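>> Question from a student workshop board

For tomorrow's exercise we were told to take the sequence and the ligand below, predict the bound structure, and bring the output to class. My setup keeps failing. Could a helper post the expected result so I can at least see what it should look like? The ligand is fe (ii) ion.
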Amino acid sequence: MQSARNYTLSLFDCFAGMGYDVLTRVPHLPTINPPLWELGHLAWFTEWFVLREALSSHPADAQRASLLTRGDDWFDSNTVPHRSRWTLDLPSAGALKTYCHEVLDRTLDKLSREPGTDEALYPYRLALAHEDMHGEALLYTLQTLGVPVPPSLSRDEPVRSPSARIAYPGGTIALGAQEGGFVFDNEKQAHQCYVAPFDIDAGLVTNAQFAEFMADGGYQNRQFWSVAGSAWLMQQERSSPRYWQREAGALGGAQQGGQGGGQSDREGGRQGAGQGDRQGDRQWITTRFGRLMTLAPAEPVRHICLYEAQAYCAWLGRRLPTEAEWEFAALSGQAGFAWGQLWEWTASPFEPYPGFAPDRYREYSEPWFMTHQVLRGASFATPARFGSARYRNFYRPERDDMFVGFRTCAL
Ligand SMILES: [Fe+2]
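>> Workshop helper replied:
Here is what the output should look like for this input. Compare the format with yours to find the bug.
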């Protein structure tokens, strides 16, 4: 918990360096929260479930008052509307850091006296998972706002995506949470699930592969797009993934972004995703945490929404994996299935498993069933303690701001 909090505070300092610790300077976007609000919310959430021993997230269920007199008015995500978080009369960053410190001190002290049972540790593990998730959200908010982040904080290392495909025999698996430890409610209950034989990419679709789709008119040819995807595309007027842009000529300033400088070593002299396509004299560049860089062809394509992933699959004559197939592959023990670099869209809408019942954080899953899509895996920004092959992430189909990519399956 101390490590998660240190990370949160370090990311907050990145925001503060750009003036985003002041509520009114933060752009009013539906996908982000003001960092100052996030800071208070994280400590408030821990205080709610650990120190105030709340039996659930219902506003009447805390057993004692907050250290902050107005804490519940400011930081309860169930009762404070998103749009109002920019205009709250919040304490200063210094005062909220003091609150964070006090809550964590008391939490660690209380933890030291707890028995090591799953039941006793539940609120602590919930608070830690919550802070880990918000930590990743803070990092993709830094990407959204174009704020520079030191590599030690972004943990964003260059990787190659394996190009092999793997055939799995299928069979019956136990989908969902097994006994013990901490899991969110949407992983319960474990149940038997039959998975037919399937053939799946060993790694994620790369920038170079996605550039082929674009060069072949992928964004212009509506036959590749679902009805919802076409509607999204018309609103966006997009012809490339978010953050992609063309730059004429050679690398120019793009190499100064850091990762771009090492790319030619990894690519044996190739210079950018899609080189050789119709506009081969101009290569693709992108922005990572506010810095321009060349897109490395062999790296997984990222910041792709579900509709773009589906359109690519339709163009290729393949499909997204279901979440059961994904879990089957990840837990098969068979070598070669690479995951953990980016979250991955699946073909599965976010639905309850049989026997679902909300846990103490009642709004974690239930309000989002059927409107969100399941993502599996983890990203470079996900702490190892949080990553699990059974974890079910979920976002609305149009989201592309988080660290997300995809892989394909044979039809
Ligand atoms: Fe939260």
